[in-house]
Amino acid sequence: MAGMKAEFLVYLLMLIWVQSNGSKYVYDPLKPITSPELIDGNISTCPGLYCGRITVYNDSNHNDFTFSQCGPCPRGESADKMSICQPCGDTPSLYDWLYLGFMVILSLTLHFFFIDYFFKEDNKTVIALHVSAFFECFLAAIISLLIVQPVGKLDLYSCGVRRLSDWYTMMKNPKPDYTTQLHCTQEAVYPLYTLIFLSYTFQLIFMMLFRPFLSVKLCKNQGKNSIYAALYFLPILVVIHAVCAGLIYYSYPHIIIIVSLVTHAVHFSRTEINTPKQLLSKKRNVIILIAHWLIHGYGIIAITRLQNPTVHASLLILVPIPAIFFIATAQFTEPNKISDYES
């Protein structure tokens, strides 16, 4: 009983101290604050990983200002250590640039595949559709870069990527008092997320402007099915990017290597390429082989990030090995020869 009285007395004393001293400042993330309060160190930072306060200037000279309540930072800004939203000024890393390039190459590869798949005649007019697809993706990427900060320059200001949750800020909205949720959803990886949406949008616009005309005038309208296919796979890519962008960002180098190896083997087996002579007999096979080599090398650069340029650049000599290995071992895996041996 004496112990319970002592605990009650301690609790009562703490309550009195909080009422007399703690009432000077009660932390409220929903309440705007003034700059002197922040400078004096009496203000706690915003809860959560992505909530911040926006600086609101009360005069034209920027001498009198306050900070807004905790919330999402504007696009192109991120919260600093004091939870004040600051403009992003980092330069994208090589890995970031390669990620943007991968998303563009992905759509370009699908354009090339469906143009080749639906084109019935083996003639040179199909090249016009391939060239059109290339310039559609290229122009879309250039214009997308020009309209984001810094506007008009082929450069980017980035907030950087620090963790997987940066891509899914909607899942990190805090509840300071376990009842009221602060909505701080924003593009923490600016501009890596929205830039892809811009690029795919411009690709669709340019495709509808140029490709139908070329298909009708030069290709006897044989390019229409590839246009229809793009009207399907571009929205699908948009949805995949919207949902899985963070996962793709951290895994795309390995995706490139694996898909490159699989498609390499599929192409060789479908075209029955078993010798170097068969490989070099058609220009189409050589072009596809070189494309695979370029993509394979792209994946190696993305994985290593060329952190040790001398060592990592030397790994590019491994690019032709899958093709060499396939041709060298094809004679041992020929189904007819295996059947004859068993019989």
Query: Can you give the helix content as a percent range?
Result: 55-70%
Order of helices and strands: HEHEEEEEEHHHHHHHHH
Detail the poorly predicted runs: 21-26
Count of beta strands: 7
Query: What distance lies between the first and last C-alpha atoms, to the nearest angstrom?
Result: 94 Å
Number of domains: 2
Q: Which strand order does the major sheet show?
A: 1-4-3
Contiguous helical run count: 11
Strand percentage lies at 5-15%
Query: What structural class results from the helix and strand content?
Result: mainly alpha
- Tell me, what's the shape? elongated
Instruction: Profile the largest sheet.
Output: 3 strands, antiparallel
Radius of gyration: 29 Å
Average pLDDT: 84
Overview of this structure, please?
The protein is mainly α. The protein folds into two domains: 26-87 and 163-184, no CATH class; 94-156 and 191-333, no CATH class. The chain has helices spanning 2-21, 35-39, 94-118, 126-146, 192-218, 224-270, 276-280, 283-304, 309-314, 321-329, 335-342, and strands at 33-34, 51-52, 55-57, 65-67, 71-72, 77-79, 85-87. The strands form three sheets. It has a three-stranded antiparallel sheet with strand order 1-4-3. It has a two-stranded antiparallel sheet with strand order 2-5. Strand 6 (77-79) and strand 7 (85-87) form a beta hairpin. The radius of gyration is 29 Å and the shape is elongated.
Topology:
Blueprint: H1 2-21, E1 33-34, H2 35-39, E2 51-52, E3 55-57, E4 65-67, E5 71-72, E6 77-79, E7 85-87, H3 94-118, H4 126-146, H5 192-218, H6 224-270, H7 276-280, H8 283-304, H9 309-314, H10 321-329, H11 335-342
Antiparallel strand pairs: 1-4, 2-5, 3-4, 6-7
Helix pairs in contact: 3-4, 3-5, 3-6, 4-5, 5-6, 6-8
